[in-house]
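A protein record pairs a chain with a discrete description of its three-dimensional fold. The following entry can be read in just this way.
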Amino acid sequence: KDAGQFCNKVFGELLENSVGLLSDKLKFYRLEKFYKLKDKTEQILKDKHINVTVPVLPKLGIPLIEAATVEEDEALHTKWANMLSNAIDPSFKNKITRNFVSILGDMNPVDVLILDIICKEWLSLPEDKKDTLFDRSKIANAFKIELKECEISLRNLLRLGCLKPGVVVGT
């Protein structure tokens, strides 16, 4: 309170109004992202022919929506909508937990692209080849990214527990 009064004495209402403008822009931005999340989630459910949903606990729903409403990247924003639609889909067999929110929140767009391609490749392998290693340089070339950027992304995916050590090799 004392700090606020001092700032008003020094800056007048200028600082208070500036913070208010920033707050208004942030509210508008998050509201816009919320409606995009809503539309994407409803479209996913519609495409799956799901008319009845189950509620999520606030412990999961609030952090998920908070993270989704500040997401700048469109592909990641769609991942949030997928997560939300799975969480409210009564026929979804797996359980969406709060750690998924934390993991996705710590991912960059490149991380998601790399993880998606590794998962698709791994799932397409026959059972006797599931111990296959992925080559870091081939991944970097496939996405036309620098090897260093690929390395950083792969280390992040390892840190998050999305990949296990020994899955990716460097040549």
Q: What stands out?
A: The chain has a mean pLDDT of 84. The radius of gyration is 21 Å. The chain is about 70% helix and 0% strand. Residues 13-47 form the longest helix (35 residues).
